[in-house]
Amino acid sequence: MNVVFLGPPGAGKGTQAVRISTCYRIPHIATGDMLREAIARGTELGLLARSYVDRGELVPDEVMLRLVEGRLQEPDAQEGFLLDGFPRTLPQAEGLDALLDRMHRRLEVVVFFRVPPETLLRRLSGRWVCRAAGHVYHEAHHPPRVPGRCDLDGSELYQRPDDRPEAVARRLEVYERQTAPLVEYYRARGVFREVDGVGGLEEVTRRLCAILGEAGTGRT
Ligand code: AP5
Predict the structure, then answer these.
(1) What is the pLDDT confidence band of residue 59, given thresholds at 50, 70 and 90?
(2) Are 3 and 104 in contact (CB under 8 A)?
(3) How many CA atoms lie less than 13 Å away from 45 in the CB half-sphere?
(4) 19 close to ligand 1 (CB < 6 Angstrom)
(5) Hey, which residues are catalytic here?
(6) Ligand 1 pocket check: which of 136, 152, 168 to mutate, most ligand atoms within 8 Å of Cβ?
(7) Per-residue pLDDT tens for 3-54?
(8) Helix, strand or coil, per DSSP, at residue 154
C-alpha cells in the first residue's frame, strides 16, 4: 500500500500516521521528522534545513526529492509506504510521480485531512513533542501521564520552535499558497480521498481505516 497523507500543519497527519503505519505494517516516512533529526544531529542537511524549518518556510524541492528518493529505496519501503508531509509543492508531486514511475510503482491513495483553521491553531499551540523519539502529545487532547515527560520513553517534552505563533502563521500561509493546490492535482489523478480530521483520535483512525479499505488497498 502506497499512501500519502496531505493536509495543513496541525491537522493530525503525524498522529494518525503512527497508528496507520503500525496497523498496516508500512513505514511512516515523515519528512518533517527526518529534517528535525538531521538538525538535532547537526548534519550537512540539518545545517541547511534549520533556517527554513524554524521560520516555517519550505526546504528547497531538490533537497527534499533527493531525501525521499533515498528513503523510498530502503528495504522496508519496498512493500509500501506512508508519506507524511511530502509532497507539499507541485514540483515535489511531479518529482514523486516520476520517481515512482522509474521504480514501477504508483500511489494508491492520497488522503487529505480536513480541519478548520481555529482547530489547527489550538492543536499547534498545545502540542508537546518528546526529545528522544518525536512522540507527540497535546496538553488538552492527549496529555502525558506525567507532565513534561514522554509516556513511552520518559524523555523530556518540548515545544517545536516552529509552533511559535509567528512561525505557525507563516506555515499556514505557505500551506495555502504551495501545498493546497495539490488537492486538485491528486483529484485529477483519481487517487484523492478526504477525511474529516475533527473528532477523537480513535474516531479519526476509524474513518481512515474505512477510507483505506474502500480505496481497495486492504491490509498487507
Ligand atoms: P512537518 O513536521 O511536516 O510539519 P507540518 O506538515 O506542518 O505538520 P505538523 O507536524 O505541524 O502537523 P500534523 O498534521 O502532523 O499534526 P500532529 O499529528 O502533530 O514539517 C515541519 C517543517 O519541515 C516545514 O514547515 C518545512 O520547513 C519542513 N518540511 C517538511 N517536509 C517538507 C517538504 N516536503 N518540503 C519542504 N519542506 C519540508 O497533531 C498536532 C497536534 O494536535 C498534536 O498535539 C496532537 O496530539 C493533536 N491532535 C492530533 N489529532 C487530534 C485529534 N483528532 N483531536 C485532538 N487533538 C489532536
Answers:
(1) very high
(2) no
(3) 19
(4) no
(5) 13, 88, 127, 160, 171
(6) 136
(7) 999 999 999 999 999 999 999 999 999 999 999 999 999 999 999 999 999 9
(8) coil
